Amino acid sequence: MATQPSDPDHVTERCGACGGETTHDVRVEIRTESQKEENAEFSREPYRITTCNECGAENATRMNNA
Ligand SMILES: [Zn+2]
């Protein structure tokens, strides 16, 4: 339980919902995009989910945009 100077699970970003530079909780979520079983293993995309600590708005950004 080392205390880290900067918490990697929290970032300060601009929130589109409340319009301020706010602290966000960050997590990564695997979301399945396709219902087709044959493609299931290729369709699970990691999303970076940020939750604004001010207004609670969630924003999901797909991580592999390439
Ligand atoms: Zn906000």
TrEMBL record:
<protein>
    <recommendedName>
        <fullName>DUF7835 domain-containing protein</fullName>
    </recommendedName>
</protein>
<dbReference type="Pfam" id="PF25205">
    <property type="entry name" value="DUF7835"/>
</dbReference>
<feature type="domain" description="DUF7835">
    <location>
        <begin position="1"/>
        <end position="66"/>
    </location>
</feature>
<dbReference type="InterPro" id="IPR057157">
    <property type="entry name" value="DUF7835"/>
</dbReference>
